[in-house]
Design brief:
Blueprint lengths: L1 E6 L2 E8 L1 H8 L5 E4 L4 E5 L5 H13 L12 H31 L2
Parallel strand pairs: 2-4
Antiparallel strand pairs: 1-2, 3-4
């Protein structure tokens, strides 16, 4: 199953892959993977849960913080960043994860 969703006003491709296909593309050390450069999230059907979806959606939203050039944060700075991030995106993340989960699980 493959479909598009909008995250932060950008189209993202969401795909549910059979375990063997997932393993060929991404190996065996993850349940899902988010690529913020190509804007896709791949899920291994064998590990599909709402928590896994929430985890990957978080990676997608987190990528918009543009922190690639930052090397280190103090614990206090990281705490503040995550608090502001949760304030700004927390509800959006949860709603997007639920939307994806419903699309995967509807009969």
């Amino acid at each position: 199953m493959k479909f598009k969703v909008t995250i932060n006003e950008d189209p993202w491709t969401i795909e549910l892959l059979a375990p063997d296909i997932y393993e060929l593309r991404h190996g065996t050390d993850s349940k899902a993977i988010t690529d913020d450069n190509d804007r896709f999230i791949h899920f291994n059907v064998g590990y599909l849960t709402l928590n896994v979806i929430k985890h990957e959606v978080h990676h997608a939203y987190w990528s918009y913080l543009c922190l690639d050039d930052v090397e280190t944060f103090t614990p206090e700075q990281m705490s503040e960043i995550t608090a502001v991030f949760t304030e700004k995106y927390g509800e959006k993340e949860l709603n997007k994860a639920k939307e994806i989960y419903k699309r995967f699980t509807k009969k």
